[in-house]
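Table S2 (continued). Query chain:
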Amino acid sequence: MKISTKGRYGLTIMVELAKKYGEGPTSLKSIAKENDLSEHYLEQLASPLRNAGLIKSIRGAYGGYKLSREPKEITAGDIIRVLEGPLTIVEGIEDEKPAQQALWIEIRDAVKSVMDKTTLDDLVHHDNDELQDAYMFYI
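Corresponding output:
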């Protein structure tokens, strides 16, 4: 399974909107600038997110985008499926031996589980120390 820039940048948009939830609309220009991303590319990603009902667009001088629901109600899986399609690990697993098929299915289900239980609220309030500890090696 590979998450492209569509999924990664789309998740970035959603996390930034979650950080500002309840404060009014946020422009894609400000998100692009804060994250050193292309505003034009973010505009392309906002359209499917809006069509899926995950964000709302607000027109006008002080317009922009905001989440359509609370950050704790939107999961990473919701966002990735809109931008990347269904979560699959490998193509053509039906040709594999049963034990290998079972492995790929178990991996897929584990990834789905993590994506579907991780909310935008979780991502906004993530403790960076956990990630650093995960890659700390002691010799």
